Amino acid sequence: MTRWLRWMLAWAAALLLCGAGAVLAPVPDARADTPSAGLGRVIADLGVVVPAEGKSGFSFDGRYYGYLVRLPDGGCAVHVYDLQARAQVPLTHTLDACFLPRWAAHADTLWWQVGIARPDLTAWAWDAASAQVSQLATDAQVQVALNLSADGRYLAFAGSSDSHPSPVAGDYGLNWYVFDRTTGVSLPLSHAGLSVTFRSWAPVGHHFVASTHVPASSGFGSCFGSGSSCGAVSPDSHGWSWSGDGTALLGGAGTVAFSVVYDYTDDALTPIPRGTGNISYAYFLGSTADRLLAQTKVGGVLWDRRTGSLHTIASTEPPRPSPDGRFVLYQDTAPDAYRSYDVTTGRSQPATFRSSHDQRLSGNAWTADSASYLATGPGGCSSLRQWSPITNTVSLYGPPGLQSCYLALAPELGPSSSSSGRFKNVYVTHPHQLSLGDPYLVDLRRHVLVPMTGEPLEWAPAGPDVLAVRTDDTGTSERVLLVDPTPVPDVDDQPRWSAATPANGSTFRVVPGQRAQLQIGASDLQGTPVNLYFRWRTAAGVPVRSAAVGWTCDRQRLAAGATQARCTYAPTSPRTEVRDVDVWAVNYLTGAQSDTRSYRVEVGT
After folding, report:
1. Which residues form the signal peptide (predicted)?
2. Residue-wise pLDDT tens digits, 214-260
């Protein structure tokens, strides 16, 4: 996350501050002589490194971490840490590499460029399989090195080659080539009479898309290639985005965006069915190209490319699909009400989820494993809640106190969640605080907030849960720790509900003189004491300090630390009122929480 983005988020957090929030323990100070992130255990202390600002970091499988170390002469050296071996990888080179160290998207290959301008600019790569460093595009002069293909085999670059000159001059004075690391040959992408500008590699394999231009004309289009050659050409298409498996592209034709799909499996360019209406944006669902979700004036429209079927998701705001493409969370017609659509079964049901509407700033986002959705609200940013689509249950974090506000970053704004989906980053801001806030991890399995020191950089995208944490940031250098946040010992200390009558989500409708009863209880597998907490909210979701008039609870401590409460609501004065009450159980010793039960109380005259 860039320093500019951190400043902007801090400014946004100041605008989001609201009255009630969570009372949390102060963030512990890290001792200079003992590297610590304030939680879990440090796997590796990488020492003082050059600020990465989005470059390098973890390999696609989470096994390696690449970074830069400043040399005494002001240059940089590439370093790689092997998380599986828990050791530095010996790189036998003395290269100045202060620019663009990056991993291939789907291979343990790290590449970088040395120098800033031709003829001194060269490209290099380290492959984990061979443990060797090699120079790329040795048969050409590199002007701009763009990126490796996802499988690490091909390098796309702008430059020139005496043995394979470009047949036409490229746009903006750049002639685009692809270097094949297997053959050692760099070939131009342009054809006779057609200038080709490389755009992007597929996230898997080595398909690519490029833009085309007929010299001395206004004809622009696209071509779809693989490896080092561009094959099929579409003269009137643009704006492509990839499916997760790299087999298809979604783009526009003519003046209409998000209107066609190109499929590499059959080289077919297929229009999106007109039944979807005017599309404001669209994207592939999950990791394949089978399904596509489009946003139109009537809401979301799900297109199954295998069957050709269309399913309308009537939502008043953009639907929120899970990363695996199975669930789509969308807003119902009632305020703050949501529904969940299961793509695999075709069933839709009311969701227990509630939230604020500003999903970008409040960071409403799915976890990486699609098992949970974390959001703030409703009623402002003082509430943090986790919704689980499989069980359709909500877990409320807190209990909220005064003068604090949650900020959970959306994935595109910063580190989001661990690969297992167990941990997610959030910040807690306070009144008049100019920084982004105090960083915390949410343990989504134990339902607890854990304070941390330093700034989270990124999660390993696969493998064990490992978080890169920045400490001692001076602007020109920083100390980076690789941290496993899993608690030691890692026991199942989450309370379980032993009784809940009536069912979660029930509504009590009473008039003065009548009464409604709630019986609820919880226990812990470890036999530690469990306490019950109640929180009242207005119909708009805003937390209130006191229970509704006429509410009483008789609590009893049972054997092995279990707790049971028998609550009665018996209003006496004539009035009309709607209140919600949330109930959750907390392990007295560890703070682990159950999921949250929610009930609505409606009082009529």
Report:
1. 1-25
2. 877 777 889 999 999 988 788 778 889 999 999 999 998 877 778 89
**Hey, what's the torsion of the CAs at 73, 77, 83, 88, to 10 degrees?**
-70
- Of 456, 415, 457, nearest to 56 (Cα)? 457
Q: Does residue 443 share a domain with residue 319?
A: yes
List of residues 6+ apart from 392 with CB closer than 8 A: 340, 349, 351, 352
Calculated CA dihedral for residues 202, 203, 204, 205, nearest 10 degrees: 30
pLDDT band at 117 (very low <50, low <70, confident <90, very high): low
446 with 359, same domain: the answer is: yes
Q: Write out the two tokens for 602.
A: 């409606």
CB within 8 Å of 66: residues ≥ 6 apart = 56, 57, 59, 78, 79, 80, 81, 101, 103, 110
At residue 395, the 3 state secondary structure works out as: strand
Residue 36: name the closest of 474, 449, 489, 471 by CA: 471
Amino acid at 249: L
Provide the b/e sequence for 192-231 (b: ≥16 CB within 10 Å). Answer: eebbbbbbbbbbbbbbbbbbbbeeeeeebbbbbbebbebe
Report pLDDT for 402. 56
pLDDT tens digits for range 33-53: 578 889 999 999 999 888 765
pTM for the whole thing?
0.84
Taking the C-alpha atoms of residue 240 and residue 262, their distance in angstroms, rounded to an integer, is 9
Reduce the DSSP state of residue 307 to 3 states and report it: coil
Query: Is the backbone peptide bond immediately before 335 cis, with ω within 30 degrees of 0?
Result: no
For residue 345, give its domain range. 315-452
Q: How confident is the model at residue 360 (pLDDT cuts 50, 70, 90)?
A: very low
Q: Quick one: 380 and 509 in the same domain?
A: no
